[in-house]
Amino acid sequence: MTRYFTDEHEWIDVDGTSATVGITDYAQGQLGDIVFVEVPTAGTQVKKGGDAAVVESVKAASDVYAPVSGTVTEGNGALDGDPALVNSDPEGDGWFFKLTLSDPSELDGLMDEAAYKAYVNGL
Amino acid sequence: MSEDEAEILELPLGGWHRAHGARMVPFAGYAMPIQYEGIMSEHLWTRESAGLFDVSHMGQLMLAGDSVEEALEALIPADVKGLSEGQMRYSLFLNDEGGILDDLMITKTPMGIYVVINGAVKWDDIGHLREFLPDEITLNHMEDRALLALQGPKAVDALARVVPGVGKLFFMEAGSFLWGHEPLWISRSGYTGEDGFEISVPAEAVAALADALLAQPEVKPIGLGARDSLRLEAGLPLYGHDLDEATNPIAAGLGFAVSKRRRTEGGFPGSEPILKALQDGASTKRVGFLVDGRQPVREGATIFSGSAQVGTITSGGFAPSVQAPIAIGFVATAQSAPGTALEAEVRGKRIGLIVTRMPFVPHNYVRKGAVQ
Question: Is-contact A43 A32, C-beta < 8 A?
């Protein structure tokens, strides 16, 4: 399994053509206390860079974008009852959705962990 | 020049906020702390203990002159002449249509009428005053003073240790106090619904005073994020969001700002449409909403009754003390009774609303004459 990152602070774990998407620890820290998450349902088609989910903190609503194109296979139902999972475990149990990649070559433009760390340090 | 390109100004406590771990954002033209440890915990801390807020972006004015009370009454609907020294009142700057240019606090002091105005519109307010006040009234914009707020049920304990005697003030009363050699002007007032104080202090002394307050075990620094969620729960309107130049004060539930004598005499900008709305009722009303589920309903969302559009949300978010989303908005008066079921549209989805009485969390003011 390989983990990639976007410059919009999403992470994506890829295993073949299956992947899991969430937001990074840096992103949850910037958003603050998360009170609601709207994840896509199974069957939803998402496009690389397009809106895929919404995360709401006390202060504001923010879009979460799809790191790659594909078909959603599952939204994380645990976030309905416990949206604060995104704060406590953003890169684990606080995942947003799983999808089947439609074009694995789209992964080429994403960052690996070292590159993302350097990117965040530069912000 | 767009707002993004405009120079972001530094307030006297800017460095203090950064040193205490604040995340700074541009607000009303200044770099201000949005949060320290987190909006949720700062909010809850203020409700149970005491939170220290820097509100130095707000404008502090002193209006003076022999006829200052009469002159100010030509611009606001308050009974300025009837104020006794140290009495504070909520008031409004109005246009001729009765719309709200800003909301403000006025207090009678030995020096004149002390006025606190919103940071975002303070330059417009000052221009308005300079244009419409007679030349013999002096307007001193006290840019050499900072403004702190200490809010919460334990604010009185913490502040009284630093500035003895503040406990003698009741809600909406103010007076002058000395902190060492520093002259303070302190009112028992605020924007959280809690007991608390607002403290005007010379800018060069504000960091030392903030340190002295923060040294009290009850006190933590609180950012603008929690200031907004606290005032939302308290049902207090925010200028530029819940109130603007098109808002009739009566529709906004601010009829209490039109004093009894002025209701008979009029003589303030917009008095005709405002007094008419007082008499006949307004066509819309500012109300509070409880929101179904967990998804916040925010400013700008359209309110429906069935397929009919009946209003707009003007403030909304997650309420940490209610542990649910709440909102404020304007609806047609026919739809404004508590218990009315309506819907808001958010991202193409309908979310249930129930009109409810405000505040969402009881006010804890220490009022004169109330049983303690």
Answer: no
ipTM (interface predicted TM)? 0.89
Alpha carbon of A111: minimum distance to chain B alpha carbons (Å): 27
Candidates B158, B143, B139; CA nearest to B75 is B139
DSSP 8-state assignment for residue A67: S
The model's pTM: 0.95
A56 and B318: CB-CB below 8 Å? Answer: yes
The answer, for B43 touching chain A at a CB cutoff of 8 Å, is: yes
Per-residue DSSP letters for B6-65? SPPBPPTTHHHHHHTTPEEEEETTEEEEEESS-HHHHHHHHHHSEEEEE-TTSEEEEEES
- Quickly count helices (H) and strands (E) in chain B: 9, 19
- Could you give the CA distance from residue B179 to residue B185 in angstroms, rounded to a whole number? 10
Angle separating helix axes B39-48 and B224-233, nearest 10 degrees? 60
Chain B residues inside the 8 Å CB shell of A33: 38-41, 320
B203 close to B142: Cβ distance less than 8 angstroms: no
Tokens 């917009």 belong to: B270
For chain B, percent helix, then strand, then coil, each to nearest 5? 25, 35, 40
Q: Which amino acid is at A121?
A: N
Q: Which one-letter amino acid corresponds to residue B317?
A: G
Distance CA A12, CA A3 (A): 6
* CA separation for the pair B291, A22 (Å, rounded): 27
Return the CATH superfamily for domain B3-54+144-233: Probable tRNA modification gtpase trme; domain 1 (3.30.1360.120)
Domain B283-356 belongs in CATH node 3.40.50.150: no
| Residue B113 phi, psi dihedral angles, 5° rounding | -100, 120
What pairs with residue A111 in β-bridges? A5
The torsion angles phi and psi of B153, rounded to 5 degrees, stand at: -60, -25
- For chain B, the residue count is 372
- Residues A84 and A25: their CA atoms lie apart, in Å, by 13
* B20 at A interface, C-beta within 8 A: no
What would the pLDDT profile of B206-253 be if each residue is shown by its tens digit?
A: 999 999 999 999 999 999 999 999 999 999 999 999 999 999 999 999
- The domain locations on chain B are 3-54+144-233, 283-356
pLDDT tier, A59 (very low <50, low <70, confident <90, very high otherwise) = confident
Instruction: State the DSSP H helix or E strand holding residue B103, giving kind and residue range, or none if neither.
Output: strand B100-109
Contacts of B255 by beta carbon, 8 Å cutoff, 6+ apart: B249, B278
Least Cα separation, residue B208 to chain A (angstroms):
29
- What tens digit of pLDDT does each residue of B281-309 get? 999 999 999 999 999 999 999 999 999 99
